[in-house]
C-alpha cells in the first residue's frame, strides 16, 4: 500500500507493459495477475485523488488532474498500458454519468427492471 | 332403438354374469349374446312392445347404483350434525393443497427454464452458436463437435483486457468449481454427461476476440492463472470474426494489427451456456454472481433429458 502514491518512490519496478515478455509463438504475453493488480492499485490511487479534488473526467480536466494528482497520474501511466489508462478514465466518466442518471430516475420514481431482462444479442458499451 | 338401449344396459348384466363366467373370449361373446337375448336379472318380467321401451327410459343411460338412502333416524341425525365435512376430509384437503402448490411452483420454474432453453431450438428461432474450427491453447484443432456430449460455457474476451474479462474469468473459474462440486457424484450415472467423451460436467471455453495478440501460447499462459480446465480458442482474423458472428458477439477488432500494438477490443460480455447438442440455452451476464450462475447451469443440466445425440 502506498508504494506508488508518493513521488519519492526511489526505483519503481519495471512496468510489464513497457517491455512485455515474448511468447514462444512470436507474440507477447498479456499482463499477468500480478501486473494487473499493480495497475489496478495505481488506478484506485489515482481515482481516489480525483475524488478528493472533485475531478470526474481525467482526460478533459487533464491540467487540473495533473496539478492535483500528478504523482498518482504518473504511477498510473507507469503501471498500466496507455490504452488501459484511457479506458479507465473514460469508464470513470461513464459510471459517474450512469450513477447520476440512475439517481435522477430514482427521484422521478422509476424502478429498476427485474434481473435477466436483457437479451443475449444485447451488447454493452463500453466493454473490455 | 332396442339395440341402443341394450348397449347401455348390458354392462350391468355382463358384470353380474362375469363372476361366474371364466373370461375367455368365447364366454364373453356368449355372455354378451345372452345379454342381448335376455334382460338383466335385476329387471322384473319383461313386457313386450311399447311398455318395455317406456320402462327403459326411466333411467336411460345410468349404470351407477342408486345412492344409499338414509335408513334410520340416527343416520339422519349424524348427517345433519357434521354436514358433508369431516376431520379426515379437512386433512386430505390441506395436504392436497400443499402438494399442488409445491408441484406447481416447481413446475412453473421448470417450464420457465425449458422455455428459455428451447427458445433457441426449432425453426424460426434466432440461432446462437454454430460450426467453427479454431485452435486450442496447445495448438490443436478444436471444433464445435468437441463441445457436444455435455454442457459448455462459452466466454468471449481477450488477454489484454483491462478489468472486465479478468473479473469475469475469475467468476467463471468459480462457476466451474461450483458446478463440478454440485454435480460430482452424478457424473456417469446421469444423462446430461456422456462419461466416455468428457471428464468434466461443464466444458469452459474462452474464445478470443483478439487473434492477432492472442496466440495459443499467450492464451495458455494467460488462462492457466484462472482455471486449469479452461480451453482457450484462437484462430485467424476471419475464423474469429465468423465465430463471433455465429454467437452474435459484437466484434470490432481491426484487421491487420500487429502483436506489439496497444489497443482495446470491444466485445460482448455474456457467458453462453450451450447444451450437449451444441444449442444455445441461456446467456449469463454480469449481474449474476458465480453462485447464482452455477445454480442456473446445474438446473438446466438436471432438466436435460435429450440424451446424447451424435
Summarize the structure.
With 128 residues, chain A is mainly alpha-helical.
Helices and strands, with pairings:
The complex is a heterodimer of chains A (128) and B (310).
Chain A (H helix, E strand, L loop, with lengths): L32 H20 L9 H18 L2 H26 L21
Chain B lengths: L1 H17 L6 H13 L12 H7 L16 H10 L4 H32 L14 E3 L5 E3 L7 E7 L6 H20 L18 E7 L7 H8 L7 E3 L3 H10 L24 E4 L5 E5 L5 H14 L7
Parallel strand pairs in B: 3-4, 4-5
Antiparallel strand pairs in B: 1-2, 3-6, 6-7
Helix pairs in contact in B: 1-2, 6-9
Structure overview:
The complex is a heterodimer of chains A (128) and B (310). Chain A is mainly α and 128 residues long. Chain A has three helices and no strands. Chain A has helices at 33-52, 62-79, 82-107. In chain A, helix 1 (33-52) packs antiparallel against helix 2. Helices cover 42% and strands 10% of the residues of chain B. In chain B, strand 3 (151-157), helix 6 and strand 4 (202-208) form a beta-alpha-beta unit. Mean pLDDT of chain B is 75; it is low at 1-41, 49-54 and 187-197. Chain A binds chain B through residues 17, 20, 23-33, 36, 39-40, 80-84, 87-88, 115-116, 118-128, and chain B through 126, 128, 159-166, 212-218, 221-222, 225, 248, 250, 259-260, 262-270, 272, 280, 282-283, 285-288.
Supply the key terms.
heterodimer, A: 128 residues, B: 310 residues, 5-stranded mixed sheet, disordered N terminus, CX6/COA6-like_sf (chain A), Cytochrome c oxidase assembly factor 6 (chain A)
